[in-house]
Amino acid sequence: MASLLFQRASWSLQITRTSKSFAICFNTALPRRSQHRNLATEATDSLRSGRASAPRRRPRSDEFRTPFHSTKVYQAQQARRATTATASSSTPQQPPPTSARSQSSAEDVIHTDDLTAGLSDKPFILDEKSRQVDWARSFHGLSNEAFSKEAAEALLAPISLDDIEVKPDGIVYLPEIKYRRILNKAFGPGAWGLAPRGETIVTAKAVTREYALVALGRLVSVARGEQDYFSPEGIPTAVEGCKSNALMRCCKDLGVASELWDPRFIRKFIAESAKEVWVEHQQTQKRRKIWMRKDDQIRYPFKLYTPSAQGTGRPNNSKY
Known about the structure:
Blueprint: E1 2-7, E2 11-17, E3 22-28, H1 39-48, H2 60-65, H3 70-90, H4 100-108, H5 149-156, E4 165-166, E5 172-173, H6 176-187, E6 192-196, E7 201-202, E8 206-215, E9 218-228, H7 235-251, H8 263-273, E10 274-281, E11 287-293, E12 302-304
Antiparallel strand pairs: 1-2, 2-3, 4-5, 6-8, 7-8, 8-9, 10-11, 10-12
Helix pairs in contact: 5-6
């Protein structure tokens, strides 16, 4: 709320502005008739006394007859204020001067690159006239012909149950090094590889990139890998995990470890070769259930938790 006050000896005007309306209050005190002056007599006396050069004072009665023009003055003031505010907002404000101590502390800070903005590792694009195949865009040799009988037997061979691992949440998987061993056995070391087909995308919590599996000079499969990370320092490790995840998905088209995608095989393996146990964290004493192979051992920082004989067989929920 803004308020303007115009005050004279015999009157006062107050204008109050709110967000939705104006309020005007005008107060005046008219002089008594006995106080009115004789203008002719005052003019004659001033000439006789030699004070004609003095500025003539306007009669009080004329003040009441003068037209009111303060609204125009108020509008002009508002226009002037708006112009000043616009000029000040358009002019960039200078930052406040910093002390020598704050400047020295800012110089001590080590600036590091923010990897979450992207790695800028787009694959190299070959010239159209080049004889070399551009695996970043090409689908050369896809489904051209079947691999040899020896390579097919190595790719489609049933996996050993001893190679299957179980995650604490019950997911079964084959370590990525086992996929590489199968490809080396089928094609030979150096006869296959992964070609990136796009830039590494780094989000707030994960890394993803598309790869193409090439074997014997032919494109076999294209898949996108992904890997989570918990801090910017873990992005390089996540990039490598993303590549291994893409390799696992590409091998799915070759039939490598196809049993791990079969729900019936998974349920049978869990029932015969896995178990669910209660463990306790040795530092935080928190307890939870985890899945593991029956022939495996509990590793640090967990240890096997055995409920007390007086309990119901379930750990205490206060520490769970």
